User: Fold this.
Amino acid sequence: MKKLLLATATILAGLTIAGCSDSTVASSTAGKITEDEFYEAMKETVGTSMLQQLIIEDVLDDSYGDKVTDEVVDKQYSTEEENYGGAEAFEYIMLQQGYTADSYKDTIRLNLLIEEAVKDKTKFTEEEIQAAYDAYVPPVTAAHILVEDEETAKDLITQLNDGADFAKLATENSVDTATAPNGGEITFASGEMVPEFEEAAYALKEGEMTTEPVASEYGFHIIKMIEKPEKGTLEEETDTIKDQLLTAKLADSAAIQEVISGIMQDANILIDDKDLATAMDAYLAPATEESATEESATEESATEEPAADSSATEESAVEESAAE
Assistant:
């Protein structure tokens, strides 16, 4: 899932912001805490960000909720759960970062609603598509064996030259736990791997293997090219190119804010609580370039997805480099 422009204040999940009463929220020998008192305290701390989230989600759901169904959200949740090493590991990661399954699904839903909005409001010019096509390199599928020392890598290359099975050696010897179980196979596009790995891989033809170990910060790789497709025509690759351009758009918090602001300005938003009256100002009035940059940086840092640590799950050494 993509980073969001908006902060998700999960501490308020399930709390109805509008509408207060004198009902007791908690009590002790010191007295009672009423809903009014609780509301006022929470409003001062996270009220603005939560109101932003609720309004934006409500407006976007009205336009794109038919595409972001519970089934779609559950599917995305299951995918992330699997990527982070299964239910137990994922639950542990969410717990560390203050999420429950329900509050994290709310985050997924908002992510997907924003993605649908950006898709709907973004049109790419022919010039943009052509430029992206000219730079496009189709993803390739290779297999690799990652070991910690050069001597071991050279010994494995000798075995491979003598007829050993690459997939079998990868499963038995590779320290890349993410790819070893499937014989070391990995599919990637240009720019997703560490430079040393990528340069060596793209230099190979289909069926070829590196004759010397390829050193990187992760160890020593032996690489075999499995599938290296040719780039299709512009017409054939247009959908792929548009997907890449959209992915870049969704990684740009300023571009996301521009889209959301346009939608919010057409939504006739009224805020009755005078203390929160400015909550949507960033979206209802054109922001200066400086303020937009500062806000984007602040909001981006506040909307990180759960990040797996080494104790919860081990990612592919090569794949991790793509995120750096």
Notes: The chain is about 50% helix and 10% strand. The chain has a mean pLDDT of 82. The radius of gyration is 25 Å. Residues 10-121+252-322 form one domain.
